[in-house]
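Chain A, query sequence.
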Amino acid sequence: MHLTLEEGSFAAWLAEVLPPHVRRLIVCHPRKNALLKSGTKSDRIDARKLAELLRAGLLKPVYHDPSPPRALKELARSYITPVRDATRVMNRLKALYRGRGIRCSGTRVYSPRFRSEWFEQLPELGVRQRAELLYGQLDLVERLRQHARRALLSESRKHPAGKILRTILGLGPVRAALLLAWMQTPYRFRSKRQLWSHAGLGLVSRSSAQYQVVRGEIVSSSRPVSLRGLNREHSPDPKEIFKGAALVASCRPGPLQDFFLARVAEGIRSGSP
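Chain A, predicted structure.
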């Protein structure tokens, strides 16, 4: 029996429990199944269309490691959540001050040492109480972030690959732990081109009229391949890690900074990746 299902909330769990009961299991990419978007839609119709795509070998599989580093992946999610929550709270704090014409550039507005100075600029009682609640949220999320960070780093030290990743310039302990959690293993990719595409750093190219007839013979055309930027179908978490590592490496003296400055001198915008 061959079975397929679309990537979703239950996909990781089903990818663990179903393989012993079927000959082959494919967790497919729902955005790649264009056939399901056409015509009448229902569960029965979608299931038949998925079966036809499975029979024809046209499904785009989604990687699921049968033995993933479960603890590290869960701790990575536990760390990312308070980081993003803290960013939201900080944005709300600055929006509160900016909405009343108070300049609040930099990070001093978040520091507990200077909060009394910022409170003095809020004469309205309701606004001040709202700011106090936001600061309370920020302090709580920051404590959770620090706790999650310590647990993540402690777990990442159990994996030998983490030590190798930390030797790469720009990949600190946190980025190495997150990369290990998201990627799991490099052997899931056929080559480095697939890895860059997964991380959103692969170039999308378009070409047509690759061959032409010259004196009765078919020869390759010299028409250049047109580039359409970076691929949009990617995982955002690895892309954020690689971009952050590249920015750190470009700010420190070394061969990577020399390469970066040379590309900028050629006219490439520093923020184009």
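The chain has a mean pLDDT of 87. DSSP finds ten helices and six strands in the chain.
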